[in-house]
Amino acid sequence: MEAAETGRAAVADRLLTSSLRTSYDPTVEIDWDAPHTPGAYWLPPQRSSLYGTPLWEQLSEEQRVELTKHEVASAASAGLWFETILMQMLIREYYRADPTSRQAQYSLTEVADECRHSIMFGRLIEAMGCPVYRASTVDHHLGRFLKATASGPRMYAAILIAEEILDAFQREIMADESLQPLIRMVSRIHVVEEARHVRFAREELAAAVAATGPVGMAYARLLVGRAAYTIANRLVHPDVYAAVGIPPAVGRAAARANPHWRATLRWSAARVHANLAEVGLVAGPGRLLWARAGLI
Ligand SMILES: [Fe+2]
Ligand SMILES: [Fe+2]
């Protein structure tokens, strides 16, 4: 085995050991029937897409809490949609992998984590009494294309974008004692297990980039930009605004123009943008999509 190969196997081996020590079954760990805390937000209010806008000022305190609940349901819907894509990409990769390698075994362990996460997000949406905010038809087809074709740098970069953007929100939520206990618990479980996924994806991404030629990298930059655009756009589904009596198109336009929300998007993407830019995956036309999505 080459040195780089040995290094990747060692990382995967450590992640497998860590998975044995700290993995959670959300159906057992979380009391799904516990009453919600009256008046507590589901997201820090300053992370709401409408925070600071005239529309926000017109909402009652109760409606503001309600809006953050639907924004969380939207993010959870996006999270489990993306996890379904991710699981299929990892399984597709596994199909041609060496099943005795630690990397292949860790891939399967990650799929097992994501199975529990998607159940957890489904239970969360149900417990909040919110609708499932589904991807648009265009995004649905883009997702189908991604999960059927992406491999190498495209696959690991798309995984990192989705995981790291959600992770930024969840780390803040789990540390904020003023928020609903249910969303703090869900965030804590997700953050612990996702830290391993992010570590693994960075390692595999570096190897995949090293093995990809200039044409493959140019295609990857474009696809990665499109994935970033979709994820940023999909985070808050426009229908969430209807839950507090705001027409979806009006809410969406206000969020897009909201400097607080634009700052939140940049904050959530800062880490993954820096990492992907460092390996040469944010440049050219793909970079324009990052900018159009408000992520940079
Ligand atoms: Fe997950
Ligand atoms: Fe993950």
Task: Provide structural commentary.
There is one protein chain. The protein has 296 residues and is mainly α. It has a single domain (60-293), classed as Ribonucleotide Reductase, subunit A (Orthogonal Bundle). It has helices at 3-21, 26-29, 54-58, 61-95, 102-128, 137-149, 152-175, 181-210, 214-234, 248-257, 259-278, 284-292. α4 packs parallel to α6 (137-149), α4 runs antiparallel to α7 and α7 runs parallel beside α9. It is globular and about 60 Å long. The chain starts with a helix and ends with a helix. One fe (ii) ion is lined by residues 83, 114, 117, 190, 194.
Give a nutshell description of this structure.
The chain is mainly alpha-helical and 296 residues long.
In the CATH hierarchy, what is the superfamily? Ribonucleotide Reductase, subunit A
User: Uncertain regions: pLDDT < 50 for 5+ in a row?
Assistant: none
* Helix-strand category: mainly alpha
Instruction: For the record, give the distance between the C-alpha atoms at the N and C termini, rounded to a whole number.
Output: 39 Å
Q: Give the proportion of residues in helices.
A: over 70%
CATH class: Mainly Alpha
The CATH architecture can be given as: Orthogonal Bundle
